[in-house]
Specification:
Elements: E1 9-13, H1 18-28, E2 32-37, E3 50-51, E4 54-55, H2 56-60, E5 65-70, H3 75-86, E6 90-93, H4 99-102, H5 107-112, E7 118-123, H6 138-144, H7 147-150, H8 165-183, H9 187-190, E8 194-199, H10 200-207, H11 209-218, E9 235-239, E10 244-248, H12 252-261, H13 265-269, H14 276-281, H15 283-294, H16 299-308, E11 313-315, H17 319-324, H18 326-330, E12 334-339, E13 343-348, E14 353-354, E15 357-358, H19 372-378, H20 383-391, E16 395-396
Parallel strand pairs: 1-2, 1-6, 2-5, 6-7, 7-8
Antiparallel strand pairs: 3-4, 5-16, 9-10, 10-11, 12-13, 14-15
């Protein structure tokens, strides 16, 4: 059975994470993704750690693609890139505002040229508006989305999420919008052009729907509660005799079962904890009581006790433990691949499954310019012309 997006051609002008991650998701679903890079490559190629000269950071978000490295200012390049984009189903980019237009590859340029392209643009703050020209990166978006104002404990300095979450959320949003546009008749199959726009900061604002709802309802900035949920209790991390673990009680039934499992029947009878709203109001007293119990035994004991009671609980794992975890391995979230230059390496798998199997491209991330000749030849560029480009320093293969 063919992959869901088999037969679709995506041309990606991606840098660092957002558009490259979007492109990788589409490649995992079967699309042909041609990544256009400047002669020096995607900036992600400069970020370590490295396997020899190949960036592990780049490899992590560029699985399944073809790399074309070409100087966009070269005389032949504009013809090549325009021809490539006009023949694509999707053109994807996260370049600075105006960069695609300066190459003659903006949405209007391609639409007026007869292309039926789903044109997806991932921007920092939006394609229009007072901040449209501002550059941005994940730390900036976490700060200006409100995310850093709600993370951590009350009174602490601002906290950020460790991963570059804005890029991954925006990349996922863009992939969803692209697939929707294709399903709605966009691209070569449907014969329609569509413009898709996703802003990184908007993506972070939207992903905080629960926190935003608290603000809309109260008109006040939500209190910072560390690992504790602001809306259910007890729902947070607790210290044990040998570490920490997470407990998530999200209903009155859960709370009754928790009290029973811990032999703390008095908690179920305490009027301060008679409903979720009261438990949230009296969180500190409840947390202190539970903490005195949890710190008496090791983590595995409490995981066993509460799991048997049907309460959502979990360990706090470091990355070696994550990839040694039996369920993660069963789900193929750790994958060994052969890279043409990096050799045999481990990479993360895909969280997507189709028909019971992981939706994951079998192609490794490309080295710079690995497919320049192949793609240009398919466009009708002769070997002599390609040789001239390479000799002139206008292409890399």
């Amino acid at each position: 059975m063919s992959a869901p997006l088999s037969g679709l051609r995506i041309v990606e002008f991606g840098n660092l994470v957002a558009a490259p991650y979007c492109g990788m998701l589409l490649a995992d679903l079967g699309a042909e993704v041609i990544k256009i890079e400047p002669l020096g490559g995607d900036l992600a190629r400069e970020i370590g750690p490295f396997y020899g000269e190949e960036s592990a950071f780049f490899i992590a978000v560029n699985r399944g693609k073809k790399s074309v490295a070409i100087d966009a200012k070269a005389p032949l390049a504009s013809t090549v890139l325009r021809r490539l984009c006009l023949g694509a189903d999707v053109v994807l980019n996260n370049l600075r505002r105006g960069a695609m237009e300066r190459m003659g590859l903006g949405y209007r340029d391609l639409s007026d040229g007869g292309g039926h392209v789903v044109y997806a643009s991932i921007t920092a703050f939006g394609a229009t508006g007072p901040d449209a020209d501002r550059p941005g990166i994940d730390l900036v978006f976490q700060g200006e989305s409100g995310m850093m104002s709600i993370a951590g404990d009350e009174g602490d300095p601002p906290h950020k999420t460790a991963t570059t979450i804005a890029d991954f959320v925006a990349g996922t949003n863009a992939a969803l919008a692209i697939v929707a546009a294709i399903a709605g008749g966009g691209g070569r199959r449907g014969g329609e052009g569509r413009l898709v726009e996703v802003a990184l900061r908007d993506s972070l604002i939207a992903v905080q729907a629960g926190w935003n709802a608290q603000f809309f309802a109260s008109g006040n900035q939500p209190e910072r509660t560390g690992t504790a949920s602001p809306v259910t209790a007890p729902n947070q991390s607790f210290r044990t005799a040998d570490g920490y673990f997470n407990v998530a009680v999200v209903s009155d039934r859960h709370f009754a079962e928790t009290a029973k499992a811990l032999d703390l029947f008095e908690l179920g009878e305490d009027p301060r904890f008679g409903s979720n709203a009261l438990r949230v109001e009296n969180r500190q007293a409840l947390t202190e009581r539970l903490q005195t119990v949890f710190e008496t035994r090791p983590t595995d004991h409490w995981i066993d006790v509460l799991s048997r009671a049907g309460i959502p609980v979990g360990r706090i794992l470091d990355l070696p433990a994550v990839f040694a975890d039996r369920q993660a391995q069963h789900n193929e979230m750790l994958v060994a691949v052969e890279h043409p230059r990096a050799g045999s390496i481990n990479t993360q798998g895909s969280p997507l499954r189709v028909d019971g199997s992981p939706a994951r491209s079998q192609l490794p991330a490309p080295f710079l310019g690995q497919h320049t000749r192949e793609v240009l030849t398919d466009l009708g560029i002769t070997d002599d012309e390609i040789d001239d480009l390479v000799r002139a320093g206008e292409a890399v293969e």
